[in-house]
Amino acid sequence: MYKKRVIKETIYFHLYISPWLLGFLIFTLWPIIQSLYISLTDWEMQLNKYPKFIGISNYRNLLFNDELFWISLKNTIYYAFGSVPLGLILALILALLLNQKLRGITIFRTIFYLPSVISGVAVALLWVWIFNPNFGIVNVILAKLGLPTPGWFGDPEWAMPALIIMSFWGVGGSMLIFLAGLQGIPTEFYEAAEIDGANLWSKFRHITLPMLSPTILFNLVMGIIGSFQVFTNVYIMTSGGPGTATLVYVLYLFQNAFLYFKMGYASAMAWILFVIILILTLLVIKSSAFWVYYETEVKK
Amino acid sequence: MKFTESKRINNILTDSLIYFILGIGSFFTLIPLLWMISSSLKDICSIFVFPPQWIPKPIQWYNYIAIWQEAPFMRYIGNTAIITGLCIFGDILSASIVAFGFARLRAPGSRMLFILVLSTMMIPYYVTIIPRYVMFKSWGWIDTFKPLTVPAFFGYPFFIFLLRQFFLTIPRELDDAARIDGCGTFGIYLRIIMPLSKTALITVGIFSFMENWNDFMAPLIFLNSPEKYTIALGLNFFRGFHSAHWHYLMASSTIALLPCLLLFFFAQKYFIQGIVTTGLKG
Question: How many A-B residue pairs are in contact by the CB < 8 A criterion?
Answer without folding.
Answer: 244
